[in-house]
Structure prediction request, 116 residues.
Amino acid sequence: MLFQIIKIIISAILIWAISEISKKFSFWGAVLASVPLISVLSFIWMYAENKDIAKISRLSYSIFWLVIPSLVLFVVFPVLLKLRINFFLALILSIGATSLSYWLTVCILGWCDIKL
Prediction:
């Protein structure tokens, strides 16, 4: 249980730090946010808990294929904001577009016999 609490605290501190840094230095906030910290932390937590290298490798492989559709959010969201769409509506529409992109990617990978 203590390990779970430590994981939550470290993860929360990273998210908080990125948010706070972004308020003053958008470039450095973007640099920190673009580093796959959540993925790296997930690898570390998985290794610390069960040392299952095969599962960590599969996770890394799946993340690789899903990075491309995740980029849709970072294209659609600012476009919608520039069109003066309400922030929350733009966010919801961007998440929807990203979800559709994930679905299409998974379908295409399945047709190519690539298993995630």
About this structure: Residues 81 and 87 are 7 Å apart (CA to CA). The mean pLDDT is 91. The chain has two domains: 1-35, 51-116. Helices lie at 2-24, 26-34, 37-50, 53-82, 87-111.
